[in-house]
Amino acid sequence: MPTLFKFRNLASTLGGAGQLLLSTRNGRPLTDAVTTTVAGGTDIQVTQTAGGQALTWFTEPITEAVTISGTVTVRITGRESATTVNAGAGILIQRCDNSGAVLSTIVANLTVPATITEWTTAYTTKIGTYTPTSTAMAVGERIKATVKIRNVGTMGAGTSTIGYNDPQIGTNRSEIEFTENIRTDEVIEVQQPEIYGSNGYRV
Asked: Residue 118: how many CA atoms within 13 Å on its side-chain side?
């Protein structure tokens, strides 16, 4: 069964600055991460705000050993501030230990899609499919994803915005899909019923 991890606007349990959760659960609302682009730039890590904190996303620890070898599909929603920015998306996916230290690379630092296309000034979703380096993951390890702003031709000064934490409605999605069933110890919140009115319940 494939596993779909979403880029969330929730802090990772690692607790470090700019370390967010890669989750199997949907988010809400769609959140902007704005990255400053520079003339002649090539490979810029996505930041929370222009010139602000760089972001990375981590799963919770793996609870069942798994080998990642099937196709990995990456979807990144984004836009650029002007057509002269000449920017698109990139991705780096890595295997980490439980402290977040990188152990190996699953998907190398590549563009999304593999033949990069430029953002427009309205949100669009770029999709890339990749054959990963076959990676055996042990219990307690994590998957780390770093989203990049990549040049399409010569990058110009401006901003490029990534949309994430989306509720999976419509076409605006930022997520990573693995062929394998990857189990983590992510806590699932279960709503509790409450009394509503004089004789009813709601959740």
From this structure: 16
The region of weakest confidence among 43-52, 125-134, 156-165, 166-175 is 166-175
Are 171 and 109 a contacting pair, CB within 8 Å?
A: no
Tell me: the pLDDT tens digits for 29-61? Answer: 889 999 999 999 999 999 999 999 999 999 999
Q: Which of 2-16, 71-85, 165-179 has the lowest mean pLDDT?
A: 165-179
Superfamily of domain 3-202: Galactose-binding domain-like (2.60.120.260)
Q: Are 175 and 88 in contact (CB under 8 A)?
A: no
Residue 30 DSSP one-character state: -
CA distance 91 to 116: 12
